[in-house]
């Protein structure tokens, strides 16, 4: 009989670090019928019901699910690098690039994951690592009852919106792309960080909240405390379904895809099971169910996109490349991440 167990990655990472430092870390044994998947806390219950439980029934593999923030889960992987306790990590593209650079993730054999051939090119890793299994789009979340037309990025700096703006912290999925979109709008391009930070520093007096969690942002918009905020289209879907006056619109410049990826941990005790899980995750049927259940836009070209997603993001929900969206230069972002996070805290949010 299969089962799913929830573990909090933050606590697990702390415990793993303690054991590692004391030299008492336990050795995980290989078991082809057991798999540990680390994923996001947001929508985890629906993910388990829609994806994990059917996978368990189909394969007979028992899946343990860990949840937590990207940074916490990456820390746990570093601590346990010599003896990993996780097989599959579902993590944002930026943190995936960090993990790849640190040697934490393994490449995938396309023959073992045949559904790789059915996904969009932007979802594939050029270096053979795990693919994107869903994506979000950077743009402006806003109160539709406060704007006659969708606001552009430049609207944030207008005096009439002072104190009614929220901005993503650099630790969020939208943080780095928003900096690059600001740099593209006010500078020579997305890598012109000096221009981006100058404008964000000027924006500081307008900002009611620098948010760290999507739930925090949605709550601020729902209560009307915030009228607009740079963010991902995903977080407008449920409010729109509920009939709330919250919409999303793309920026004029700096249209970036923020992808969630599925990575196999290097040294996984069950790589074959991990490849089966990722292949299952990429199948058209599962992609459609995930889109309907927790708003994950599919990367499988054969999967149908629910009307609730196209209502928010338009044609970009089915073909982001045709709508002008591109993937950010993740290698460049990883190289500058620490400096940019520090600079953001000093010049913008501090």
UniProtKB/TrEMBL annotation:
PROSITE patterns xrefs: PROKAR_LIPOPROTEIN (PS51257)
Xref: CDD domains: PBP2_polyamine_RpCGA009
Single GO cellular component term: outer membrane-bounded periplasmic space
Name of protein: ABC transporter substrate-binding protein
Signal peptide: 1-25
Keywords: Signal
GO biological process: thiamine transport
GO molecular function annotation: thiamine binding; thiamine pyrophosphate binding
InterPro entries per record: SBP
PANTHER family xrefs: ABC TRANSPORTER SUBSTRATE-BINDING PROTEIN, THIAMINE-BINDING PERIPLASMIC PROTEIN-RELATED
Any Pfam family matching the protein: SBP_bac_8
């Amino acid at each position: 009989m299969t089962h799913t167990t929830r573990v909090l990655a933050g606590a697990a990472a702390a415990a793993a670090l303690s054991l590692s430092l004391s030299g008492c870390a336990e050795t995980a044994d290989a078991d082809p019928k057991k798999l540990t998947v680390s994923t996001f806390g947001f929508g985890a219950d629906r993910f388990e019901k829609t994806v994990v439980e059917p996978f368990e029934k189909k394969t007979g593999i028992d899946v343990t699910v860990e949840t937590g923030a990207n940074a916490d889960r990456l820390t746990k992987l570093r601590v346990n690098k010599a003896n990993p306790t996780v097989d599959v990590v579902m993590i944002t593209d930026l943190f995936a690039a960090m993990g790849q650079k640190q040697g934490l993730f393994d490449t995938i054999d396309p023959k073992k994951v045949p559904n790789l051939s059915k996904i969009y090119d932007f979802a594939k890793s050029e270096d053979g690592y795990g693919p994107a299994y869903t994506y979000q789009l950077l743009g402006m979340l806003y109160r539709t009852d406060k704007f006659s037309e969708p606001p552009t990025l430049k609207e944030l700096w207008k005096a009439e919106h002072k104190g009614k703006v929220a901005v993503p912290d650099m630790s969020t999925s939208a943080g780095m792309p928003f900096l690059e979109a600001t740099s593209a709008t006010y500078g020579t391009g997305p890598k012109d960080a000096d221009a981006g930070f100058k404008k964000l520093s000027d924006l500081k007096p307008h900002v009611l909240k620098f948010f760290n969690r999507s739930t925090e942002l949605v709550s601020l918009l729902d209560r009307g405390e915030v009228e607009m905020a740079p963010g991902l289209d995903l977080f407008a879907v449920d409010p729109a379904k509920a009939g709330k006056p919250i919409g999303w619109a793309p920026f004029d410049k700096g249209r970036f895809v923020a992808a969630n990826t599925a990575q196999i941990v290097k040294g996984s005790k069950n790589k074959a099971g991990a490849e089966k899980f990722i292949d299952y995750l990429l199948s058209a049927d599962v992609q459609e169910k995930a889109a309907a259940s927790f708003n994950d836009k599919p990367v499988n070209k054969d999967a149908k996109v629910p009307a609730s997603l196209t209502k928010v993001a338009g044609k970009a929900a089915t073909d982001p490349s045709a709508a002008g969206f591109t993937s950010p230069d993740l290698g460049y972002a990883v190289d500058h991440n620490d400096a940019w996070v520090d600079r953001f805290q000093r010049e913008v949010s501090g």
